[in-house]
Amino acid sequence: MKHYDYIIVGGGIIGLCIARELRLRLPSASICLLEKEADVARHASGRNSGVLHAGFYYTADSLKARFTKEGNQAMTRYCEANGLQINRCGKLVVAANEGELQDLMELKKRADRNGVQLEWVDAMDIQAIDPNVASNRLALYSPTTASVDPIEVCQKLKQEVLSMGVEIACQTAYVSQTVNRIKTNRGSYSFSYFINAAGLYADQVAKDFGFGLDYTMIPFKGMYMTYTGEATDISTNIYPVPDLQQPFLGVHFTKTVDGSIKVGPTATPALWRENYGGWQRLKWKELFRIVWEEARLFLSNSFQFRTFALEEMKKYRKAYFIQLARYMVKDLDWQAFKSTIQPGIRAQLLHQKTRRLEQDFIVEGDGRSIHVLNAVSPGFTCAFPFTRYVVDQVMIKQGLREKTSKVQIS
């Protein structure tokens, strides 16, 4: 049984960036990242939209607000420095009617508080940015929103941390833990410090260590449809005004890193954690627990879950799904939305006492372990500064640095 100073469970963008940050700070530490799949980024990190968000949706007191702006800049720099694809196509947030202009004003206020560039644009400006976009008089334009290839980014991070001496053990699934030791399907590992970045299973792993006791994971399935018409029909990301009481941004048009177009996503309550399609990866215990939780939310209509779930179920009808996005553009070949991209599962933490979804990052830990319980969207955008924050907490918990009142982002 080999001993490591740090063991990280979870080979998504968060786990990879934590490994990178640890190595940059502690060149001589032994670090091992465990991933249950055959390669990194097989789940949310490799199945997300690839959009680098700007940071104007979030209240100024949130960790998301703190990290999204810096994360956008850091990921952009990383892609450019390493020759990775990036499409700086920007984003327009459009209003369907006069009433939604008030909601746009709230987004602009949040952008100003967060120090994020967000510009009012009128019909003439919209025409110059993307002549196919429709909005009620005004819209908001985010010039720093961009698109990347999330799998390409994660593969580059994997290559980088391997070259730095971090070990990565794939097809190695966490099973259980005892004092300073974890059991996996491929034997046991001992550690000085344990870091949980297990995504969809982060709450289960955390509970083994005595953390995350107030939470449980509710998975939501996101699906996009690809546009097989002319790629030039849309030149920027086009988003609706979101319901700021929910953690989802609504059906929108995404301009991908290769210039193609997709519409989505759904946010359908999933029946188990890796409920991508059919009965693959079904775990009966998960199915019963998650369906039980979702049934309770449905009956109580907590955070309007029943209303939301019924609306999401309607999106399985292609015509209805497409209809939700039609008002945002002037003209498209609506028959050209044909194929469905592989779905992703969003790990969304539910507070069991308040019966509400947690909309910000949540990290718990002590001198022996730390657990990234809620790394919700825009977790990919926030990855670099957020994982610096996590590693700051690790250093504090281990007594390697003093706690500061403000996280320093460099």
Number of helices: 11
Computed over alpha carbons, the radius of gyration is: 21 Å
Large-scale geometry: globular
Number of strands: 23
Strand content: 15-25%
Distance between the termini: 37 Å
The percentage helix is 25-40%
Low-confidence parts: 404-410
Structural class category: alpha+beta
Main β sheet profile: 8 strands, mixed
User: What's the overall average pLDDT, rounded?
Assistant: 94
Task: Tell me what you see in this structure.
- By secondary structure, the chain is an alpha+beta fold.
- 32% of the residues lie in helices and 24% in strands.
- The protein is built from eleven helices and 23 strands.
- Strands 1, 2, 9, 10, 11, 12, 22 and 23 form an eight-stranded mixed β-sheet that branches.
- β16 and β17 (261-264) form a beta hairpin.
- Residues 404-410 have low confidence and may be disordered.
Topology:
Elements: E1 3-9, H1 13-25, E2 31-34, H2 44-47, E3 51-52, H3 63-81, E4 86-87, E5 91-94, H4 98-114, E6 119-121, H5 123-129, E7 139-142, E8 146-148, H6 150-163, E9 167-169, E10 174-178, E11 181-184, E12 187-196, H7 202-208, E13 215-222, E14 225-227, E15 237-240, E16 252-255, E17 261-264, E18 268-269, H8 284-300, H9 305-314, H10 318-326, E19 337-340, E20 344-351, E21 356-357, E22 362-365, E23 369-374, H11 383-397
Helix pairs in contact: 1-6, 1-11, 3-11, 8-9
